[in-house]
Amino acid sequence: MATYKKRGYKPKDREEEQRLGEQESTTAEVFSSLDEGASRTEEWVSNNQNYILGFIGVIAVALLGYLAYDQFVQKPKDIGAANELYYPQQYFDQALNATVEKDSLFNLALNGAEGKYGFLDIIDEYPGTKAANLANYAAGMAYLSMQKYQEAITYLGNFSSDDEVLGAMAKGGLGDAFMQLGQPNDALGYYENAFSLGNNKYTTPRFLYKAGVTALELNQNDKALQYFQRIKDEFATADEARTIDAFIGMAKSGK
User: Fold this and answer.
1) pTM recorded for the entire structure
2) Residue 119 contacts by C-beta under 8 Å, 6 or more apart in sequence?
3) Distance CA 107, CA 94 (A)
4) CB atoms within 10 A of CB 177
5) What phi-psi label fits residue 113: left (phi over 0), alpha (psi between -120 and 50 degrees) or beta?
6) What residues form DSSP beta bridges with 113?
7) Nearest-10 crossing angle of helices 203-217, 164-180
8) Regarding the domain delimited by 183-255, which CATH topology (the fold level of the hierarchy) does it fall under?
9) Backbone phi, psi, residue 116, to 5°
């Protein structure tokens, strides 16, 4: 343990005098080492200050560039794209509720009219925006309704969302497209992805049901039974549960 030496303190004997001298020497060496380290650091900074300042400058320019891009390019772009989305969305909604001329309305939604953008124009002109992402979803669903399944796969595949309902609808739409193209294995994978995205009374039983029916077609009866039973246990009030006992029986009888 270090001894605190008061001003004017005199050692009691020669041994203590020697010990205090060694402590002073050690302390001096430590401070000398620190001084040398500080000097070397200062020398390195001095010799490399141009590089350091340059590096800091690059970071600063990049940060300012990002902020400027976000403020003056991306945000106005997002606003412009969102405004353009309003026009084709009207035709899309009309097509969903129409009983005749649905394809004509979907075409107007996809391609625009009267100088207004359609979904496809928004995707091309405003890439990277939220509106373009939503336009991919709407375009995919429009093509699916028009029985243009390859196009539906392309646009729904380009859509992404953290929303469990919208994301599930897109995955389920992909499943429907692959099913219509005679690719039930691919369809089953997308249906499973769809009901795995969340647990709600709208999309979950819907895609559990589609997954179960597809699994039956592929002779994957254990999997089909698991999906049908989940509808019965967890979503007894859903439309899909009305005939679920019959499907459970089919899955069991095929085992």
Assistant:
1) 0.71
2) 88, 92, 109, 110, 135, 136, 138, 139, 142
3) 12
4) 26
5) beta
6) 116
7) 20
8) 1.25.40
9) -95, 145
**pLDDT digits 0-9 by tens, 190-232:** 999 999 998 999 999 999 999 999 999 999 999 999 999 999 9
**Side chain identity at residue 91, one-letter code:** Y
Q: In the beta sheet, which residues pair with residue 116?
A: 113
Q: Report the amino acid identity of residue 156.
A: L
- How many C-alpha atoms does 245 have within 13 Å on its Cβ side? 2
Amino acid at the residue 166: L
| CA pair distance 84, 195, nearest whole angstrom | 32
Return all residues near 143 (Cβ < 8 A) that are at least 6 apart: 106, 110, 149, 151, 152, 155
Residue 104 near residue 91, CB atoms below 8 Å: no
Q: What is the DSSP annotation of 108-133?
A: HHHH-BTTB--HHHHHHHSTTSHHHH
Nearest residue to 92 (alpha-carbon basis) of 113, 71, 73, 77: 113
Residues of the chain with CATH 1.25.40: 183-255
As averages over each run of 10 residues, the pLDDT of the chain (255 residues) reads 47 52 51 53 55 52 48 60 87 90 94 92 92 93 96 97 92 97 98 95 96 97 97 96 95 80
How many residues are given for the chain? 255
